[in-house]
Amino acid sequence: MSNWSEQLQSIGFEKTKKADGSVSHCYEAAHRRSSFWTQITVKQVGRPNPDSWQVTYARSEIQIGIWKIHNVVKNIEVFVHKNSSSMLDDIKEKMRRKPDFFHKISN
Question: Which of 4, 26, 46, 57 is 20 to 30 A from 14 via CA?
Answer without folding.
Answer: 46
